[in-house]
Amino acid sequence: MGKLIFEKQVKGSNHFSLPKENLDVDIKIPEDLIRTEDLGLPELSEVEMVRHFTDLSHKAYGVDDGIYPLGSCTMKYNPKINEWAARLSGFSALHPYQAEETVQGALKLMYELDEMLCEICGMDNFSLQPAAGAHGELAGVMMIKAYHNKRQDFKRTKMMVPDSAHGTNPATANVVGYDVVEIKSNDLGLVDIDDLQAKMNDEIAGLMLTNPNTLGLFEEDIQEIADIVHTGGGLLYYDGANLNPIMGICRPGDMGFDVVHLNLHKTFSTPHGGGGPGSGAVGVKKHLAEFLPVPVVAYDEGTYCFNYDLPYSIGKVKSFYGNFGVFLKAYTYIKSLGRLGIIEAAQQAVLNANYLRHHLRENYYIPYDRLCKHEFVATAKYQMDANNVTTLDIAKRLIDYGYHPPTVYFPLIVKEAMMFEPVETESKARLDDLLAVLNTIAKEAEDNPELVKNAPYTATRRIDEVTAARKPIVKWEEG
Ligand SMILES: Cc1ncc(COP(=O)(O)O)c(C=O)c1O
Fold first, then answer.
1. In degrees to the nearest 10, what's the CA dihedral of 263, 264, 269, 271?
2. What number does the ligand 1 atom closest to the CA of 263 have?
3. 401-439 pLDDT, tens per residue?
């Protein structure tokens, strides 16, 4: 590992200079606010600073470096035209406090993005405010609660979530104040209808579901599921993190979902990872529109404006109006692909996932080995049974070959899970490269298990994951 920034410093160097002679201001800093101790910043010249950050950037891995098959994440390539649009000064130089009449273009863009997302999802209105998928879930489930409360239906204190769900679903339900009722998956990896029917009652506020689900399988009984929930007085929530393989082909709104969130930073190709900024746009059917976060963008007689007049709104969920740069990129992506391009992207994502699944099955156990959508789950069962080589070992060994590992140990219902989502932007040639490496690792696990168990050897070393999580050292300390 290279030196840390503080270890590189040369005392006395710095990388800034302030124009003292032009600072013609008379500021009196109160005595008690004057710093008496050194700030303790690293002392480096400009060139050393640039080298440090360039060095760090080489250590990072992203979709621009290579395939990034992280399941449940849709790490697709972010076309550079999106960045071009986001940098247009007419947009990037705007200030959120500007008067509405001076930002008509920005409001129009938000209004049209809302319309396009409604069309893609079969919903009636969207809010672009939430900053991430989990944040969209929060806004969506708060609206479900507001809906029941307005109807004086206070008995509904529980939210149903399948056992294969992403962790943010039960976490969100809990944060909004619901007790979580887990719904079992059946042998096919789909919602167990009998279990759902048995657990639906007048204490249930709704069901949070993603379709295709986190095993990459399409919930074929979705209409029956929707009927059960609606007949019991609940609402159906769509976690849109998995919209990628169905966009342009079928719509959550037509399946019976009442509220959806989308991850614009996944499906609609804006960059993600490292904590944001993202966008968890949230869409609703008409009967929930009055609960949307304020303001919503409205259009009246040739003018766009912010409408705050929603008396039952759950309120504001984000400062200003959301991450506007992300809207620009998503808008550009949808417009540049067009209707047919969106469908083709979804189809290619499904084809790529099935190609990888088909060619991996010889060396890796695939628990639900049937037609999947954009992702599928393989496991290290064969390697575990033979030589105690785990999913973690295989993931670490992939790093040695220069690949980002798949999602590991999720979904929780599959032992030693490795979740692959190759996405549509990878060619067959690149999928073949990945397959060759995975098959080589399977062979290594057989012939020389210790080699795989001690990986990685290149980018980093094997760390004690438990200590790293429990006792992280996040701050440099001298000596
Ligand atoms: C199925 C599913 N739901 C929700 C989320 C949460 O999205 P975000 O990470 O943007 O908060 C994820 C993220 O990986 C996901 O895979």
1. -80
2. 10
3. 999 999 999 999 999 999 999 999 999 999 999 999 999
